[in-house]
Specification:
Layout: E1 3-8, H1 16-31, E2 35-40, H2 46-57, H3 63-87, E3 92-95, E4 102-104, E5 113-116, H4 119-126, E6 130-134, E7 137-139, E8 145-147, H5 153-163, E9 172-177, E10 198-200, H6 201-209, H7 217-226, E11 230-234, E12 242-245, E13 258-274, H8 279-289, E14 295-302, E15 305-313, H9 317-331, E16 335-348, H10 358-368, E17 375-379, E18 382-388, H11 392-402
Parallel strand pairs: 1-2, 1-9, 2-6, 3-6, 9-11, 10-12
Antiparallel strand pairs: 4-5, 7-8, 11-12, 13-15, 13-16, 14-15, 16-18, 17-18
Helix pairs in contact: 1-3, 2-3, 5-7, 6-7, 8-9, 10-11
Bound molecules: adenosine-5'-diphosphate (ADP), aspartic acid (ASP) and magnesium ion.
Length: 423
């Protein structure tokens, strides 16, 4: 009997009617002869509202109390989903993250899943009932509730699917959301974006990491690592969705498969630092230890001084500034400069590994759209440009269309290139 993990995101369970519609999909999957596990997010914007609520009580909530507060959103959803299933005559058991065996590390607000104990889930499935699990939360070794970070319910779903080895019996992890699949860019920002029937794990991981919110990057990573078939679908409409698949299932090597925008970035510049060996390690070790992600690192040298600049998400600026203030104090020299209002536009595609002309085409598109570029970074399958936030959407649209990704152009247009070799 196939095992299917069905995850329903916040918009999909935003009100009672939608919860009932999602419950009907679960009941149908079960009636069709599957073992079904459900993962749900908090209703609508509940998580953001809980964060705002905490800010009204204190400027500095303790991480433990914050985790406790944030975990309540998903608990409301699992309880209501289980009730909706009962009403449809479908036996269901609602579970918090810890009740479902989701063990994590203790990282503040962005815990990582360490292991999943499948015993309780197997017991419930064995009794013929549907486990309904809180997304976005686990429990640390110390017994504290741990939030998995924004969008973390996707990671819960794929981790459960991996632990239950859904691929072994022809099952899958279905990510039900408010779009009917993965598009060549966020269809809310780029109306000409086209839906992809398939995308490779590798390309989806990179797209998710550079801002395509439709999937959480860690969820894609688990999917690839444990061979979990992931199917992204619309929760309220019947559709074919998008399958996230391994390399061998897609023959063509598309140069650019999609584009994404990461808005709300800030740049921290540490100026006038001493020019001594090891300064980079001294800066980035404490930032990493504080669990803050940085990218686009640029180093410039002038005389006996070094400047190191990097971008972080707006939400991390206060934390990173505190770390940098301590560092500058310890170095005995240097200034901290913080710029806000930046964004990152990225083009992603596995075919970049073997084609040239990709970066130049992106730069031409941004130039023609009148978008100045502040910095550029590349990986084997991605090119990113840092731009002003107010140019983000215009630049994304221009880059998207320059690679022939618009619906009707056919994705193959982006395969035209000037030859082999790196950019
Ligand atoms: P959920 O609450 O279901 O987890 P999210 O808001 O996290 O939903 O993700 C779905 C949203 O992701 C869509 O509404 C869409 O605006 C956005 N999105 C960003 N990039 C893409 C993309 N490439 N394809 C589809 N949707 C995207
Ligand atoms: N409710 C959490 C969030 O808003 C987790 C999720 O929806 O995936 O980020
Ligand atoms: Mg999401």
């Amino acid at each position: 009997m196939p095992t299917i993990v069905q995850k329903f995101g916040g918009t999909s369970v935003a009100d009672p009617e939608r919860i009932l519609r999602c419950a009907r999909r679960v009941a149908e999957a079960r009636a069709a002869g599957n073992r079904v596990v459900v993962v749900v997010s908090a209703m609508g914007h509940t998580t953001d509202e809980l964060i705002d609520l905490a800010a009204k009580v204190t400027a500095n909530p303790s991480p433990r109390a914050m985790a406790m507060l944030m975990s309540t959103g998903e608990q409301v959803s699992v309880a209501l989903m289980a009730m909706a299933l009962h009403g449809l005559g479908c036996d269901a058991v609602s579970l918090t993250g810890w009740q479902a065996g989701m063990d994590t590390d203790a990282a503040h607000r962005k815990a990582r899943i360490a292991r999943v104990d499948r015993a309780r889930l197997e017991g419930i499935l064995g009794s013929g009932a549907v486990p309904v699990v809180c997304g976005f939360q686990g429990v640390s070794a110390e017994g504290n509730i741990t939030p998995l970070g924004p969008g973390g319910s996707d990671a819960t779903a794929v981790a459960l699917a991996a632990a239950l080895d859904v691929a072994a019996d022809g099952g899958a992890c279905e990510i039900f959301t408010d779009v009917d699949g993965v598009y060549t860019a966020d269809p809310r920002l780029v109306p000409s974006a086209a839906k992809l029937r398939h995308i490779r794990y590798e390309a989806m991981l990179e797209l998710a990491s550079v801002g395509a919110a439709v999937m959480h990057p860690r969820a894609v990573l688990f999917g690839e690592k444990f061979g979990v078939p992931i199917h992204v679908r619309h929760s309220q409409k019947p559709d074919s969705g998008t399958m996230i698949v391994p390399e061998e299932q897609i023959m063509e090597d598309i140069v650019v498969v999609g584009c994404a925008l990461k808005p709300d970035l800030g740049r921290i510049s540490l100026k006038g630092l001493p020019k001594v060996p090891g300064i980079q390690a001294q800066i980035f070790e404490p930032i990493a230890a504080a669990n803050i992600g940085v990218d686009d690192i640029v180093q410039t040298e002038f005389g006996d001084a070094t400047t190191i600049a990097f971008t972080v998400e707006h939400g991390d600026i206060a934390d990173v500034k505190a770390v940098c203030q301590r560092l500058v104090g310890a170095f005995g020299r240097g200034d901290i400069d913080v710029e806000v209002g930046l964004a990152k536009i990225s083009a992603v595609g596995t075919g970049m590994k073997s084609h040239t002309g990709v970066a130049s085409r992106m730069f031409r598109a941004l130039a023609d759209a009148g978008v100045p570029i502040h910095n550029i970074t590349t990986s084997e399958i991605k090119i990113s440009a840092i731009v002003d936030r107010q140019n983000g959407e215009k630049g994304l649209q221009a880059v998207h269309d320059a690679f022939g990704l618009a619906a009707g152009d056919g994705v193959t247009a982006s395969m035209q290139s000037s030859g082999r070799g790196r950019r």
